[in-house]
Amino acid sequence: MPTTSSRKSKFRPWDVVLVPFPYSDQPRTKVRPAVVVSSVKLSDATGMYYVAMITNAAHVPWAGDVPVSDVAAAGLPIPSVVRTAKIATIDEQALIRPLGSLPKQDRTRVSAACKNFLAFRPTEAP
Questions:
Q1: HSE-up of residue 76 (Cα within 13 Å, Cβ side)
Q2: So what's the pLDDT on residue 26?
Q3: From residue 89, how far is each of 61, 75, 77, 79, 92 by CA, in Å?
Q4: Among the listed residues 63, 58, 54, the one whose alpha carbon sits nearest the alpha carbon of residue 106
Q5: Model confidence over 62-100: pLDDT tens digits?
Q6: For the residues of 44-59, what is the DSSP string, one character each?
Q7: Are 73 and 101 in contact, with CB atoms under 8 Å apart?
Q8: pLDDT in tens, 52-64
Q9: CA angle at 18 for the pair 5 and 16, rounded to the nearest 5°
Q10: Under CATH, what is the fold of the domain 15-117?
Q11: What separation in angstroms does the CA of 58 have from each of 24, 33, 81, 102?
Q12: Whole-structure pTM over 0.70, yes or no?
């Protein structure tokens, strides 16, 4: 496995990228935008990224959805939301290309929504 000294991440936190995002209920993927929500420590050490799915804002809303405030800066063609309930681990070689960057004003909301769904609270019982 690569170490932090042997590799440098191609993508940074909050980059909006085009990826083959896995379906949760089918053994296939769909090429779609996603936002990198992992730190460079993960990608430098493993070549992997945690990404949150981005989808059309016209879809039925889910808990944890965060509207993208500036779709042009994010490189998106239509009003969109970050669907923080759908996070995948993607190998760097599978990321197709960068699209843009998540606007700064959206990052705090995406981070809080992701944390809300993850078991990082030591007081939570299994």
A1: 26
A2: 73
A3: 23, 21, 24, 25, 10
A4: 54
A5: 999 999 999 999 999 999 999 999 999 999 999 999 999
A6: HHHSEEEEEEEEETTS
A7: yes
A8: 999 999 999 999 9
A9: 70
A10: SH3 type barrels. (2.30.30)
A11: 20, 15, 9, 19
A12: yes
Sheet of 97-101: strand order equals 65-67, 80-91, 48-56, 29-36, 15-22, 97-101
Residue that the structure tokens 């609270």 belong to: 121
Instruction: Report the candidate in 9, 34, 12 with the shortest Cα–Cα distance to residue 21.
Output: 34
Cα angle 103-92-64, degrees, rounded to a multiple of 5:
40
Tokens of 34: 């996603």
Bridge partners for 48 per DSSP = 91
Per DSSP, helices labelled H in 1-126 are: 40-46, 71-74, 104-117
Each domain of the chain, given as residue ranges in start order, spans 15-117
